[in-house]
Amino acid sequence: MTHITTLAEPVRLRLPATSANLGPGFDAVGLAMGLYLTIDAEVSALGAFSIDATGRDAALCSQVENNLILTTYTDVLANAGMLSVRLHLRIQNEIPLGMGCGSSAAALLAGVMLANHFGKLNWTKEKVLAEACHREGHPDNVAACFLGGFTVSMDSRSSIETATYSNNSKWKLMLALPSAALSTSKARAMLPEEYSRADAVANIQTTALLVSAFALGRGDLLGPAMQDRIHQPYRMAACPLLPKLLPLAGENGILGVALSGAEPSVLLIADEAADRNSIFALIRAEASDPAIEILEPLIASGAEILAPIR
User: The pTM is what?
Assistant: First the structure.
């Protein structure tokens, strides 16, 4: 193992939440949302890992043991043949955990970025992205978190191929969060091993239409473009909010509705002229869940390395 002889300066990272799939774009499409994981990191003066966390799910974010950011950080450096310096992290979290908002992707990417910085690996952006995507197992959330906007991605094994639209539309995002979370592994276990040709063709068509809708700013295409036959039908039982809100597409200025990622939250995209209060009331009426939470993130830019802490 190689020891780091010259310690790196403190660093601040800011990584956005993401909503993946957007209906038919299974494991290929992601949308960055303006809910952020912000991390101030510096070499620990105590010689041990430590975390101070504030914001959403602060108690979970402050746990050092089995912390995805730190385990990724140490593992990346170990695989590079380097001993990891111990860090103190100050975390401010806005991303819901276990809700299909890309919290694990943001944590994985943060761990890789911290390893690159404090290990002085000098990796390119492409290498950082590929490392995080391969650890996640699919590129959709990580690529959108890293690059921002509406991002399409493909893992070609040798590299991660991406295309990003910053999307200058003024569509409104509304994220409906139910009271109970769902693990991604459980959600993935619900999917079949094989699909019919009809279902595969339908999703190819809707995914192509979805990409076109974002590229052209065509909100009128989002209703049909966000329909899916590959994963959403199989996750309905574990995501009871989805069948209640899917029929809202086309009502009160709601352009499209889809499961957010693999988990129980539902993303609604509305026209800029839509009345938010009317949509909120409609969501609450259909959800029949008094604990439902509705967030309104903007479409966001990608992960940033900000000015070092002072």
Answer: 0.93
